[in-house]
Write a structure and sequence with these properties.
heterodimer; A: 183 residues; mainly alpha; 75% helix; B: alpha+beta; 6 helices
């Protein structure tokens, strides 16, 4: 496996294991970066936020309490804060520029949108599903195929498709709720 | 009366007319089933949005900067308050992202000495997207309407062997307006593929690939120019009966040489093209 399991990462991280930061980055680098990339106009800002999130997560790892929520939720909360900081900094810059140009100041909200965060978290969880289930869910969401057609195309039993869909939706919902609770 | 079967609720959340009239009647009047249906529908709506969210890998230098910041911590005793129990402190990480122990780096290096364009010809990521696209392509061909192939025999210096219409994949609704053509030509020394695409202006660049029939093998041909045109010389000896599909991807500027899994348009070469090209 290229990507370590959440349990492995969480356990290594809680122990301060020397490999934990690398595992954390392998597992959640794309989640954090994608959140930042979709919330911030400039790619360089998104890279800065990603760097800050992992550095501050490592330095503040004593404050992570597995009892209070998932590691993913904790990281998403840190990412939200860093994105907010970056947006505010960018808005200050814009104001300065707007004043210089006598134009209108930017009206963008200086917080990442819940919709953006939730969609990226969902995509992350979707990417974590076992391959067969991920394929079923992807077709169920993004093709116009019914579950009968999915069973036919993938040549798997109808019952398996239905159970993948039910469990897949439940799992995605649980992940959204877990990450929401944590911030 | 018992509650509606959770599998039926899940299918209804996806918009299917699943279950009996009785199920529908129960769901409509049962607060628990209604709430469950709304929650699941919320997940579906969020997931569908304006199409799938492609997760992006951070560019490789980001990890280098993180590793450097952490290494700087350990170099300053005052900052190393978060040292591990055995006193060894945070990991020492080299700048490929590998600690001294084994492990894969989170990213392949984006560039480096000895790295050639051919290095992109192997890939292992994005199997799902390709598999899904393969399934979808199979359906499309099954429906039989979208691959327009014109056999051409113009008396020009380099006759066109085939002209293929490139179309967006049905599961990527955000590319519904995209289209393109690919013309395969034979010159005395090589086969050339001229690709032209119309697609919305997006951040990133468009890259042309040949996809293998196994759904996982790929050959990168190169990038389209700003007008979304490009002419590419195919690798000599390539088997077009296997590498028979043409794919155009939108690639983010993240230094990755892998397919982004964002397929904009595709088309299939006719089997006659492989035969003609071999001769």
């Amino acid at each position: 496996m290229d990507v370590p399991s959440d349990e492995d990462v969480s356990a290594a991280f809680a122990k301060g294991d020397p490999d934990a930061l690398r595992l954390l980055y392998q597992r959640f680098g794309s989640l954090v970066y994608s959140l930042a990339r979709r919330s911030l106009a400039a790619a360089a800002d998104a890279e800065d936020v990603t760097q800050q999130v992992f550095v501050s997560a490592w330095r503040g790892r004593d404050t992570f309490d597995p009892e209070r929520g998932s590691l993913a939720g904790w990281l998403v909360a840190i990412t939200r804060n860093r994105i907010t900081d970056a947006m505010r900094a960018r808005r200050r810059d814009d104001r300065v520029l707007a004043t210089m140009a006598a134009g209108a100041p930017s009206e963008d909200p200086a917080v990442p949108s819940d919709q953006v965060v939730n969609r990226v978290v969902l995509a992350d969880e979707l990417s974590r599903l076992p391959e067969a289930q991920r394929l079923v869910m992807t077709l169920a969401f993004y093709s116009d195929l019914t579950h009968e057609q999915i069973a036919e195309v993938l040549q798997i039993p109808l019952g398996t498709v239905k159970s993948h869909i039910r469990r897949g939706l439940q799992r995605l919902r649980s992940r959204l709720e877990a990450d929401r609770v944590a911030h | 009366m018992s509650h509606t079967d959770p599998e039926i609720l899940a299918l209804r959340a996806l918009g299917e007319q699943a279950g009996s009239a009785q199920d529908a009647a129960h769901t409509a009047q049962c607060a628990d089933c209604q709430r469950e249906l709304e929650r699941l529908s919320g997940v579906v709506e969020l997931a569908r949005g304006d199409g799938p969210v492609q997760l992006e890998q951070p560019p490789a230098p980001v990890w280098d900067r993180i590793a450097a910041a952490i290494d700087a911590d350990t170099a300053q005793p005052g900052v190393a308050a978060a040292a591990t129990a055995n006193g060894s402190g945070p990991a020492h990480l080299n700048h490929d992202g590998n600690p001294p122990s084994a492990g894969r780096p989170p990213h392949p290096p984006s560039t480096g000495p000895g790295r050639t364009p051919r290095a992109r010809r192997r890939r292992s990521r994005g199997k799902l997207a390709v598999a899904v696209a393969g399934v979808a392509a199979g359906l499309v061909i099954g429906i039989g309407a979208t691959v327009a192939i014109t056999e051409l025999a113009r008396p020009s210096a380099s006759p066109a062997v085939a002209e293929v219409a490139l179309r967006p994949l049905p599961q990527y609704p955000q590319w519904r307006g995209a289209a393109g053509t690919a013309v395969l030509r034979e010159t005395p020394s090589a086969q050339q593929l001229a690709v032209s695409v119309t697609a919305p202006r997006r951040v990133g660049f468009y890259e042309v690939w040949l996809l293998g029939r196994n759904g996982t093998s790929m050959i990168s041909l190169g990038d389209l120019d700003a007008a979304k045109n490009g002419t590419f010389t195919l690798p000599a000896g390539v088997d077009l009966s296997f590498y028979s599909r043409i794919d155009v991807s939108l690639q983010p500027f993240n230094g990755s040489t892998l397919h982004s899994s964002t397929s904009v348009v595709r088309g299939s070469l006719p089997s006659s093209a492989a035969g003609a090209a071999g001769g």
